[in-house]
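[Automated response] Your request has been received and processed.

Submitted sequence:
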Amino acid sequence: MLTDKFNRTHTYLRISITDKCNLRCTYCNPIDLPKGYFSVSNKMSPDEIEQIATTFVKNGITKIRLTGGEPLVRKDAKEIILRLAKLNVELAITTNGVYVNEFIEVFKQANIKTVNVSLDTLKQQKNLLITGRNEFDKVHENINLLLQNDFTVKVNVVVMKNTNDNEILDFVEWTKNQPVHVRFIEFMPFSGNNWSNDKVFNYKEILQLIKTKYKYENLQQDKSDTAMKFKAVNHKGTFAIISTMSKPFCGGCNRLRLTTDGKMKNCLFSKTEVDILTALRNKENIEPLIQQCVWDKEEIQGGQFNSINGINDALAIKNRSMIFIGG
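Generated structure:
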């Protein structure tokens, strides 16, 4: 088992299979991507991903989520999905939804049950402003397609004050007649994403707003859940809040991350990374590296800050941009 010095057992691995994306969401992409970025990448091959994932599973990982960038833009995404489907794990994926219709049968073949789709607004023009691309209709159609095919669909909404906080009630209304699971995510700081704490619409503010229109009940959650889960009365779907900034959930964290270039991060905000891929290519035993990385995990938020009041801007964070880490 992968246990850290705070006695947290880690059973969930998020693997970024690419740091490329067909959208340009402002909270994920650095404002100034380096020249030539989209043509060069030292990424893990499908075989290397399978080898590393197999080692993690051997050490107690029971769930793997594929992320990006946008994982489905990778040309060999189908091969990677089907390779990992052979492992004895729950397999899930996070996507921006644009190419979902091309992968429905692959998801079924891989026994993927849950698909997380990023969608930060229900307004077409605002979606264009946030993502830089006019793909709203396609994403909305593909969410409906997933629902029609009996997938559990979680819609990830990064809430930004004065950007989309005025749509929170609209998202909750969506759960009335559709079995979608909307997850409001507090805006988080990463290199180059122009974060400041006055742009964070925190979980208390979200709940206060929802209370003005809806009665809701708290849903049961596991110790390792990152989301506080709720259900509006008589709604088919649910909503949840991921309060990374204002109410950290680090005490029960069971998550580890692997970037597309094979670096292991024991926390989304970890300052350090362990180069698993180079060790694998050098035919070294990667198990001790994985175990040590887990043991070295900080108690709260990578040791970088303890609350929303602990930092003033994203420049205070020593980390990659979100697109280079994986969603």
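Summary generated for your ticket: The chain is about 25% helix and 20% strand. The chain has one domain: 2-325.
If you did not submit this request, please reply to this message.
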